[in-house]
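#lab-general

N.A. 3:47 PM
ok so I finally got the sequence cleaned up, no stray characters, all 98 residues accounted for. can someone with queue access submit it? mine expired

B.Y. 3:52 PM
send it over

N.A. 3:53 PM
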Amino acid sequence: MVARCPKTLTLGVCVSTAVPAVGSRVPHVEAGVGAIATQAKTNIFYGINGLKLLKAGLSPQAALEVMLKEDPDRESRQVIIIDSEGRTAAFTGKETIG
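B.Y. 4:20 PM
back already:
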C-alpha cells in the first residue's frame, strides 16, 4: 500500500508478506516526489527509476507505462505508485503468484 496524507503531504509505503527483508526491496519513497511499492517478483528498479521519472515530471501512469514497456518480465510484477499530488497508478501482471 502507498499513501499520501492530504494535510501534511507525507508519503509512505507499508507492506506485509511472509518473505524476509522486504523493507530493503519493496518500499521506495522520496519526500516531495512520490512513493512506490514493487511486489510479486520484485524489481527494485521500478522504485529507483520510477522516482526519477516522477521527479522529471511524468505522471504516475506515464512513469508506470515507461517502466512496463521496458520490462520483458512485466507480467510477474505488481507495482503501485502515488505522487506528491496524490495521483496514482497500479499494475498487477497476469503471472503474479500469491
